[in-house]
Amino acid sequence: MSRLVIRVLPVLAALVAGCNVEAPACRVDPAFVDTSRSNSDCVVRNGDRVLAIVHRFSGKLDLPGGRREGDETGQCTAHREAWEETGLDVTVGKLLIERNSTMLFDCRLPANVDPARNVSVPPWGLVEVAGIQWVDPSEHEAADWRFPGELETVRLALDHADN
Question: What is the pTM of this model?
Fold first, then answer.
């Protein structure tokens, strides 16, 4: 089977699977409600590691997140994008940093998810996500990440999360 077919089949399956799937209602920690509206990412932590997606077409690491839709808040953007890309119904907490017109929020795993286990890409996420993994940012280089400066941004967000 050709490499193109191997790369296209999951995308086609994801398009079919994702047609009727809606994100769950936005989950925000009531102690950290933020009504600003912006593109947003989720920083999901497990010790020194963060949950990262492997972007399907670049093969590079990225945080779950993306563009705001309509009038949703930054926190709801982070929640929706994390769910679309990972299938996780995270709880979005405080704003860690805002950088390059994107807000990075502290996000927590649902109680029923064991952070020691691998997270599988949901069928609807296969359009843009090739894999999900826990990564230690100190063990990676800037070139491993999808966008210039993203590794530095992740490290800054982790510094703010610890404060």
Answer: 0.86
